[in-house]
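Quick one - first record:
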Amino acid sequence: MAVLDTVVHIAVLLLGVGIVARTITSAIRTLVLARSARDFVSALLFLGYRKLFMLRARRARTYLERDRIMALYAPVSLLSLTVMWLSLITLGYTAIFWGLDTGSLYDSFTLSGSALTTLGFARTEGTGIMVLVFSEAIIGLILIALLISYLPTMYSAFSHREAAVTMLVVRAGSPPSAVELISRAHRIQGIEHLDELWEKWEGWFADVEESHTSLTPLIFFRSPKPEQSWVTAAGVVLDAAAFYASTLQVPPPVQASLCIRAGYIALRSIADHFMVHYDPDPAPDDPISISRFEFDEACDRLESEGVPLKTDRDECWRNYAGWRVNYDVPLLALAAITLAPYAPWVSDRSRPQMLNRQEPARMLAGTDSR
């Protein structure tokens, strides 16, 4: 029995060490590592909360109500991460202390909780145990400090992202539309000035790729206004740039082409985090979610408003589809994952796995075509 008891204590001790090591790794991957890294522990928490929030969102009757529910998903999950990590550290050290035979399971839990909270109400003897107590206290303080520094960084990136999304309403309406963006540019200042917009959004895509792959909870932080979304904004700008490069009678669209490339690289990098399957090297004639009929309708509207278009409509369609195929699947997948609001050619054809969007184009109360 003595041998069996020793084996059990050693096994529990090793289990505790494993829990502590895995928890620290999870925190490093989530809060410190400056690149996209999937973490099972964090993903499990976010997935669990996702299921709970989706159960509540299913009962919502309007998109506005669903948006209010899902707006809490990312903040609640993020704050719960620290609680989960601290709980796992407590559990791991409880197993370590019990494995080292510091007393009963209750005594080990009390010692672990006292060390983690740095309250010091539980006493113990032995240099080795005291070193472990101090190490747990330090780990707890580091986790809290990391979260405190993590939140301002995240909200700074969020604010920078949303400034451009909000300003897009002026150019593309609400809900935003690529055709509306080009139409307004033509009416107000001329489409030749759109190069400035493409250059600005090229930088925006680069920033979003960096921040949303290293600070992955940002993906689920919803815009302050329910009719806006970083995903639909990205889709509208990419479609407008693709239209500009393929269909409009303009000088060589160098800046628009760079914007499209920056955009689909960013969307693909973010989609990779969710293991979205797409063809990394699609053929220009591969199928896309936009039909030729929809493309012709958009061209007819722009032509009726005096926007200069190329004469060969078939070639324009081939060139547009050749651009769109690079970002079509990642864009629609991210729209479904984030439950993005309605926007033509983006979320109106995405397929959320757990929630059907049945509202028409004007499902957002109070929205207009500003």
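second record:
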Amino acid sequence: MDTRPFDPDDVAGMVVFAAVAERGSFTAAADALGLAKSVVSAKVARLEQRLGVRLLHRTSRRVALTPAGTEVYPACARVARAARDAHEVAAGESAEPHGRLRVNAPVTFGQRWLGAPIAAFAERYPAVHIEIVLQDDVVDVVGGGWDVVLRLGAVKDADLVARRFARDVGVCCASPAYLAKHGAPTHPLELGGHACLRYSNITRDQEWRFLLGESSLSVPISGPITSNDGTLLTSLAEAGAGLLVSPWFIVGEAIRAGRLVRVLPELAMNDLPCQAVHAHGRRPPTKVRAFVDHLVAWFKDPPWGAPE
């Protein structure tokens, strides 16, 4: 890469490049930054010249990161975040939340439960422009330039701050037709003889864990179907494809309606904390604090209820 001295103007190029990389489009980045498309293109081109590498593949239809761009992007995203945070601090602690808020959340959770609270937040804070992306992959909070990431389960990264805004539990269930045909297991160790639907985004998806008093039991499971989508797995379970362990917020409605039946209901499974995660720092921006506080208040009594 280029060894010329750092130029402060490079910071603007890094911010613009991060915006293009996140949106995959010069036009979308220009709209988000309030700049002309020609200005965005010129700043990225100058940054490429300064670094001595090509950062983006440009075609008539799309923009994609080059290998060098993939390496450079996380650092540029951190620069962009620092610039936004500095602007937030300069605006003063008493200022109303404002600016762009980038949120990442799991697909099924977002589709089912985030519409109402985000609409209420947007009405309360009209100066905040929310950009929410739904995906089930574990994302890089800092490198991805996310202000808030919603995660289900424990967060062990010391560089992140996690605040629980709701709680849920996992439940084991199956359709009445499946249980009529294959029988209902009466002990976790009997799960080995059943077709189990597996969620591929969980690292230990080859076993299910049950709580037995003060101890726990991890049971190896297998089955012909694996998916990364909780809604699809629920539909498969309703269609009689096998047993499923899923958060109550996904399957609770189907269980109450009788489309699914709880299996081994007397055995507890692990709590599933719903957490709002952001980068570790001296103090998060006002918009982040307001959004997380809003989620905590909204989900004080989770709308999906609790297993009966």
